[in-house]
Amino acid sequence: MKASKPKEWSDLERRKLSAMSRRRYGAAEIAAALRRHVGSVKRMAREMGLLLKRR
Predict the structure, then answer these.
(1) DSSP element (H, E) containing 27
(2) Nearest to 35 by CA among 1, 10, 3, 53
(3) What SS3 class is residue 26?
């Protein structure tokens, strides 16, 4: 079975991630809204220098 190629992040997704992190949403809530895995959201937030709410 082939590993699928990771889906690229669009500018709209990045803006939504940034906006939701400013409103203090957690990684799980953001992942659900963007239809992405929690790990992917955490990785992108770290790359963008954003802080996500802890549980």
Answers:
(1) helix 27-34
(2) 10
(3) strand
- pLDDT tens-digit readout, 9-46: 999 999 999 999 999 999 999 999 999 999 999 999 99
Q: What is the pTM of this model?
A: 0.86
Cα 51 to the center of its chain, rounded Å:
11
Q: What does DSSP assign to residue 53?
A: B
User: How far apart are the C-alpha atoms of 50 and 17, rounded to whole Å?
Assistant: 9
CA distance 28 to 37: 8
pLDDT of residue 55 exceeding 70, the answer is: no
